[in-house]
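RECORD TYPE: inverse folding
INPUT: structure tokens
STRUCTURE:
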């Protein structure tokens, strides 16, 4: 298939020669991962990334409740010091109400299923796994021999995508020998799409040339047939 050829071409262009076969082996191993597993892990990648603002907001709400509760305790302590019974009761009521609201906020937050980074799993012997944040939707793959125990620092990344029929496509994105994802292209920023367009254009042009040659041969054959027909008539 075309996208497989493009990935191999990009690996040959972007990966140092001594690591190319390992990178290709890592790609071949990744292709064996079931489509359902890849799709499920992709959901986790985007969920973890998108949940971070929600978690930050929730934490700020809880801190605000805790600050208000502590303030009410201080006011209650002051009321106790001057034996203001009515104020003591009011501040205790405020404390109880704030605690109820805080617990309800925690319960509401916990009732919504969200994934954590620890939920994202390694999918094969090359430790293929989805990245998060600005790299969400990308799969990192260790570049190493199958018998190597140490993971090393070399990685290749692939963009996770699906075609119009929902079938998974893996698009080579980048390479690093320093385990430095920040130096690698973000999702959709690699050379895959540009290379794909170039290859499609070349195939289209080759097809046009081939069709032209077929048409020329067909035309020549027709002329020869016509000449033979005229000779017979004479």
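DESIGNED SEQUENCE:
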């Amino acid at each position: 298939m075309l996208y497989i050829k493009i990935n191999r071409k990009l690996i040959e262009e972007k990966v140092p020669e001594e690591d190319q076969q390992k990178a290709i082996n890592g790609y071949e191993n990744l292709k064996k991962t079931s489509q359902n597993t890849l799709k499920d892990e992709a959901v986790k990648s985007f969920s973890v990334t998108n949940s971070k603002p929600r978690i930050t907001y929730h934490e700020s709400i809880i801190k605000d409740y805790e600050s208000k509760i502590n303030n009410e305790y201080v006011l209650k302590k002051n009321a106790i010091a001057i034996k203001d019974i009515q104020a003591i009761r009011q501040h205790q009521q405020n404390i109880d109400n704030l605690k109820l609201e805080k617990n309800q906020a925690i319960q509401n937050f916990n009732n919504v299923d969200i994934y954590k980074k620890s939920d994202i799993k390694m999918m094969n012997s090359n430790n293929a796994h989805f990245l998060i944040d600005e790299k969400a939707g990308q799969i990192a793959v260790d570049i190493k021999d199958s018998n190597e125990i140490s993971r090393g620092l070399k990685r290749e990344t692939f963009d996770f995508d699906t075609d119009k029929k929902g079938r998974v496509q893996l698009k080579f994105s980048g390479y690093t020998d320093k385990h430095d994802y920040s130096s690698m292209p973000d999702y959709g920023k690699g050379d895959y799409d540009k290379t794909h367009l170039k290859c499609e254009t070349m195939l289209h042009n080759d097809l046009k040339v081939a069709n032209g040659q077929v048409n020329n041969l067909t035309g020549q054959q027709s002329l020869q047939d016509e000449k033979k027909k005229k000779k017979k008539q004479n």
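NOTES: The longest helix spans residues 35-81.
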